[in-house]
Amino acid sequence: MYSPQLPLARTRVASPWETEKPQPEPGGLEASLLQLMHDHHHKSLRLRELTEKAKKDAIKKAVRVSDLLMDAVNGGVQESFINEKRIELEIRALAATISRFMRQTDQWLTATHAINTAIKEIGDFENWMKTMEFDCKSINAAIRNIHQ
Q1: What three-state secondary structure class fits 11?
Q2: What global pTM score does this model have?
Q3: How far apart, in Å, do the first and last CA atoms of the chain sit?
Q4: Alpha-carbon distance 103 to 30, whole Å?
Q5: In which domain of life is the source organism classified (predicted)?
């Protein structure tokens, strides 16, 4: 297993030119070079700090953009899901309505068939009555002819 690593301390390590050496004479070439190195070192540190700060800021902004994009995409997906559920509910309602209309149509067809059958029977009965009336008249006429 790994042992937990302690955070690194930021301490300033003395450079070789900062150890106990005799101080260069002010305004000399060595002092100017030391001043240039010292200024360069401080500018490097400042630039490194600014770079780290800019990096952290860029990461924060990238995370924010990613979150906004994810919310935008998820919002569309969520809206599509809600619409899909609404459509499914409408489909179920329409299927129930269609089933009800089919039963009603079947009932109407049965009723019209019964009416048609009754009308046919009435027509048959009327035709039978006319036939019977004609037969009765024929018999009546035959009896009158025989009686005379």
Answers
A1: coil
A2: 0.43
A3: 140
A4: 108
A5: Eukaryota
How many Cα atoms sit within 13 Å of 45 on the Cβ side?
A: 8
Contact 17, 37 (CB under 8 A): yes
In Å, the largest CA–CA distance within the chain is 178
> Which secondary structure element, helix H or strand E, spans residue 69, and what is its range?
helix 29-147
**CB atoms near residue 24 (< 10 Å):** 15
Give which of 15, 12, 13, 11 is closest to 34, Cα–Cα. Answer: 15
Structure tokens at 8: 């690194």
Place of tokens 């106990």: 20
What CA–CA distance (Å, rounded) separates 24 from 31? Answer: 6
> Which distant-in-sequence residues (6+ apart) come within 8 Å of 25 by Cβ?
31
Specify the 3-state DSSP secondary structure of 19.
coil
Instruction: Considering only CA atoms, give the Rg of the chain.
Output: 55
**Would you state the pLDDT for residue 111?**
95
Phi, psi of 133 (to 5 degrees): -65, -45
Here the tokens at position 87 are 């459509």
Measure the CA angle with vertex 39, ends 33 and 43; round to 5°: 145
Structure tokens at 125: 């009965």
**Could you say which residues of the chain have pLDDT below 50?**
1, 9
Q: Residue 85 corresponds to which tokens in the numbers above? A: 């559920």
